[in-house]
Design goal:
3 helices, alpha+beta, 2 domains, 11 strands, 191 residues, Immunoglobulin-like, 5-stranded antiparallel beta sheet
Length: 191
Amino acid sequence: MQRTILIAATAVLMSLNGRSQGLFNYSTLGYAPTHIGSIDGPLAGTSIWAQMLAGPTPAALAPVGPSVHHIDTFGVPAGFVNAGVYPVPGIPDGQTAFFEMLVWDGTRWGTALSGVPGDQLGMTDVVPLVLAGLFGFPAGSPPFMRSAIVPVPEPTTLAIGLVAAAGILLRWAVRRRLGPRSRSMALRREG
């Protein structure tokens, strides 16, 4: 009987000791919201996706948790993500991990971080957070101070050239159409 209790207690303690992953709340509620285009731009809605990065140092960040879209509040873009509690692999509870959130336009680049060009990513600042455990204090959210700003793609050179050519063509057509009338009106005034 004592042997069974000892084996059961050892199994429980080993399973608790083997959990070397601290937890964090994958949420930005209450912190800096995500904007589109500029810090004064509109708030991000469900078409804007985010990926949380975490690691033991600011220079060693890797994706944790899934890519998630921003939320709407009563149909209005809120600029926040709220995805639940996730573990940070390799960093035990009670230890500090560093976090950064990357954001992008999901309608242009899809929902996976791997398909987004580097110049189309917006990002928050890198912040520290003490990770929670299963039986300790509740998991906290990374306290971002700087809003992530989703870049708005600039038009290509070809698009700018086409718009300029259309403008020149329109100006030429208007002058050609109005040209004879303006000359005849000037001649009538002189005569």
